[in-house]
Specification:
CATH topology of the domain at 140-377: TIM Barrel
Oligomer: single chain
CATH class of the domain at 140-377: Alpha Beta
Strand content: 5-15%
Helix content: 25-40%
Bound molecules: magnesium ion
Distance between the termini: 69 Å
Number of helices: 13
Number of strands: 13
Shape: globular
């Protein structure tokens, strides 16, 4: 018998024999997608777009989408995807990702990948529940038992920032982030005016906490290239562990130019809507931490590819995690399963909770121990959603983020 004969015999023998002896969970019936339902709810001070995917056997998986303030566009995309997803095998997650991404002439884009993210996360939750395993096992298993976070002081005055940062350090945090010296909600936004006082504030914070605690700042991509260079060059050497998003990320070449003007490590990536956007930043050394956002980049399927690509370049993940408990649970499973991890963003710390983790709507969430998220071994994401509480909260109104202006009246980003 030749090798090819053997393969042919196996191929002929496999289908009926496999189906006849397969455990019930491997049989296709029941795993077909029956419904995809979005919930746009106000939680704390933010709108959350949650998505429930139900299979024919009644299992439910939950996902979250992260396109803040344009949730209705994502709901439209979810409706279009539902037309061909319903009736398909919920376990073929990678294939369904491709079909969602490529099922229109104009593939991809952040509205579509925000919708794909929620579906992909929900399908992983479903598959974990179906197999009785936590999502991190579907990703290769946990590489760590707890996932360390950084916390953010949003105070403006230097003495208040130092007090908050010291409170975080006393509570166990070894990495903190502060905000530039501007008011986040100001309609008139003078980024240049913030540079000198922000440099002064950072110097004072670094002097107060010593050299060992990680210190970062998020400029929310509001500087021009020249302003970002000025900011970096005013900073005393080794003040910062990371500068998050000094400029917008649409043009990698601009980050390359900034990279040549400073040695401050960058943390970029929360705006990426695909591995194709992340690629130049990884390959050209334009970011030193990967701020991947699992609810925008395309769920586990895309985020794990970016994680692997980052690992190849010794770039650790520092995931964006500004949403609700479903985002946090998904992000925690991803962080548990990758070797290249630094810190995950948290809003659950002694100074800054913002009510995003409502316990009525989300009765079971990822547990925290000080600065650490505890990796859940419950099936799926390990969270529970009270659908009645979501419905009781009603549909959230359209929420606009501040429409910022430069001092001369021209438009800039929030
Ligand atoms: Mg940010």
């Amino acid at each position: 018998m030749t090798v090819s004969d053997t393969m042919t015999d196996q191929a002929h023998a496999t289908p009926d024999a496999t189906i006849a002896s397969a455990p019930a969970r491997l049989v296709r019936e029941g795993a077909l997608i029956a419904a995809i339902v979005p919930f746009k709810v106000k939680v704390g001070n933010r709108t959350q777009l949650l998505v429930k995917v139900t299979t024919e056997d009644g299992l439910e998986g939950w996902g979250e989408s992260g396109l803040t303030s344009r949730e209705d566009a994502v709901i439209g995309a979810l409706g279009a995807f539902s037309e061909f997803l319903i009736g398909q095998d919920s376990r073929r997650i990678g294939r369904l990702w491709q079909e969602c991404y490529r099922s229109q002439y104009f593939e991809g884009g952040r509205v579509l990948t925000a919708a794909i993210s929620a579906i992909d996360i929900a399908l992983y939750d479903l598959l974990g529940k179906r197999l009785g395993v936590p999502v991190h096992q579907l990703l290769g298993g946990a590489q760590r038992d707890r996932v360390g976070s950084f916390a953010t002081s949003t105070a403006r005055k230097t003495d208040e920032v130092i007090a908050e940062v010291k409170e975080l350090i006393a509570a166990g945090w070894d990495c903190v982030r502060i905000a530039p010296d501007y008011d986040d909600g100001d309609v008139v936004h003078d980024a240049r005016a913030s540079i000198a006082p922000t440099v002064e504030k950072l110097g004072a914070v670094r002097a107060a906490i010593g050299p060992s605690v990680g210190l970062g700042i998020d400029y929310h991509h509001r500087l021009s290239l020249a302003e970002a260079a000025r900011f970096c060059n005013l900073l005393p050497e080794a003040t910062l562990d990371f500068l998050e998003e000094p400029i917008r990320c649409e043009t990698p070449e601009s980050y390359a130019a900034l990279r040549r003007m400073t040695n401050v490590p960058f943390a970029v990536g929360e705006e990426f809507a695909s591995k194709w956007q992340a690629g130049p930043f990884i390959e050209q050394g334009l970011t030193q931490f990967m701020r991947v956002d699992i609810c925008n980049i395309g769920g586990f399927t895309e985020a794990m590819k970016v994680a692997g690509w980052s690992e190849r370049h010794y770039i650790d993940l520092m995931p964006h995690n500004p949403l609700g408990p479903i985002c946090t649970a998904a992000t925690t499973h991803m962080c548990a399963a990758v070797p290249n991890f630094a810190w995950v963003e948290t809003r659950l710390d002694p100074i800054n909770t913002k009510g995003l983790q409502d316990t009525t709507m989300f009765p079971v969430q990822v547990r925290m121990d000080g600065p650490f998220y505890i990796v859940s071994d419950a099936p799926g994401l390990g969270i529970e959603v009270d659908e009645a509480a979501l419905k009781a909260a009603g549909v959230a109104d359209q929420q606009e983020v501040p429409h910022l202006r430069h001092p001369d009246g021209s438009v800039t980003n929030w």
